[in-house]
Amino acid sequence: MFPARRRARSQRLRAWAARPNPRATRPSTTGRSAGRTPPPTTTPGNFAISTWQYSGSKIKIVADSALTSNDVEFKDGNLGTRASDPLGRYERHSSFGATDYIIFNKQKLAGASRDRRRYVALHELGHALGLCHKSDALVSLMWKTAPSPGYEITWIPDVDKTSYKKLWG
């Protein structure tokens, strides 16, 4: 039952230490032609994964297999519509073989722009990588409060790269 359930998940990922060639495990986003499936960066989750794989990053996030145990799954959920409710949430489940979740608040993100969803995916994946919230005085993906629509950060600012390097070398 457990292996079948794992195979049925729509998007499974695993993070592990970098290999000598950082591009060896990077998902390909080239080679698209008419009639084929769009490149993997079209979903907010895949965009966040490919963005966090910047040159110099030590953690590589790759597609999961039935033999892995450190999973993160992106999914939609109902997290509320109040102003204080989040756009997304990272849920950590620490038991061996457990799946962590990055949940998009489908109630608040209904009709949201592509950049808004990408920002939420980048921010929550930052939590999955161990980053905490930053002061609003710095340009950071990890602000506690999301930027106004139209002002989303969809790249990895230097302050977040520095925090990442402190955690992962």
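Next protein, fold it too.
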Amino acid sequence: MSPLPSTQSEPDRTKVSSIRQLRQFSNLLDRAIRIPGTSHGIGLDPILGLIPGGGDLLGAVFSGYIVLKAFQFGVPKETLLRMGSNIALETVAGTVPVVGDLFDVAWKANVKNVDLLEAHLENPETGKKADRGFVVLLLGGLLLLVILVSFVSLVAIALLWRLLQSL
């Protein structure tokens, strides 16, 4: 990495450093481990998703951190909603056995969300800035969705287990 130009102010350096850390975090979550023989990677998020019930919840909490940081950078409501939609789609699709796990590996919501953040910072769009209440509702709604999906998954596993025991 090249050093930052000396003409950059301290807040700009902090912003650049923060974006760099978010990019590294999203790569850890979505593509940390290269799949041999391919240019694709798998991250911690899809691996966590394999844990019944709590894995998707933990992954969504990590994903929510990126949305929270985007809010702190002043990303408009529309972009935050797109970020939330990326997480929601990954969470809901991830509940489908096998196919959902493959979708989780391919979708890479965290990388997409950092791309959205960087695109906003490069070309700030005009749009209504989100307030704290909006972000609390957005992240709270995502958390409730993940809890509901986790609960339904655990109930389905329990019912399947009972069915298998009765055979």
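About the second fold: The longest helix spans residues 132-166.
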